[in-house]
User: What shape does this take?
Amino acid sequence: MSDDHHHHPRTQSPIEQRVHALEELLVDKGIVTHEMIDEFVARYEDDIGPLNGARVVARAWTDPDYRDRLLADGTAAIAELGYGGPEGDHMIVVENTDEVHNLVVCTLCSCYPWPVLGLPPDWYKSAPYRSRAVREPRALLAEMGCDLPDEVEVRVWDSSAEARYLVLPQRPAGTDALGEDELAALVTRDAMIGVAR
Amino acid sequence: MIGDIATTGPTAPPRRNGELVFDAPWEGRAFGLTVALLEREGLGWDAFRPHLVRAIEADPDHTYYEQLAVALDAFVAERGLL
Assistant: This one.
């Protein structure tokens, strides 16, 4: 995250000025730092949720029975690990293989399984992502740094309130010796949306 | 720490399809500042909620983050942070 938000060249509303002034005062007094606030915003946006999803993926990688339950009934298997809630209902987990790569989008708005993935990244909500994921997923994925061999089939899943998708990425090669916690650390949010391998 | 943030009721940050919604960067800063101060003080969201309730009752027509900003001022004053 950039630190642009500490500087406001454009006109601010009174409330915006007030919050900005409070932050500056508290930073000047050494109560908090800009970096702490950055970190909390980022943590809430990027880490807390995805970590839950990563634990689900790591469990599926290490426990074949759990993997089967996860693919059969995502909501129930995810609830086994204690994750769920209103926006975690109707979870459908789709598995990447050597032949198939799955990509999740919400063409209508920005449906997203926040109990397992936290807050969606800005690009997930953007109009170009929402339209191009359907129209030209391979080109979109390549631009996002995910190059797929031609022989890999891309399946695009449109999330809604009735069905929220989570991608089960392939376990990386050479990770046989790793335990569940170490594996969870390897799982990224992007891989669980399907914009990374 | 911030796992106890309200998810329902008037003191819950607004969500759309389950996501926290910040309509402007300052709203994210206000939220992050609140969480950072609670963490520093070793407190949970419960310590902040009464201020938020008062701010919501005082100006029910204001947006959630306008109310949160008012509550944040009150919280900072109560804790003697400035």
